[in-house]
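REVIEWER CHECKLIST
Item 1: Sequence provided? yes
Item 2: Single chain? yes
Item 3: Sequence as submitted:
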Amino acid sequence: MKRREGFTLVELLIVVVIIGILVSISIPIFTAQMHKAKVAADWANLRAYYAEI
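Item 4: Structure as written out by the authors:
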């Protein structure tokens, strides 16, 4: 009897579900960090503008 190598469909589906969960957790964190960076850049630009006056 030959032994089959590879992954089953169930194993692949479990991996896809785990990756989906990790992505769904990381997207809100990433967007929050982008918002914080934009706010910090806006404050820096505002300070630079007032320094020129």
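Item 5: Key structural point noted by reviewer: The chain has a mean pLDDT of 93.
Item 6: Recommendation: ____
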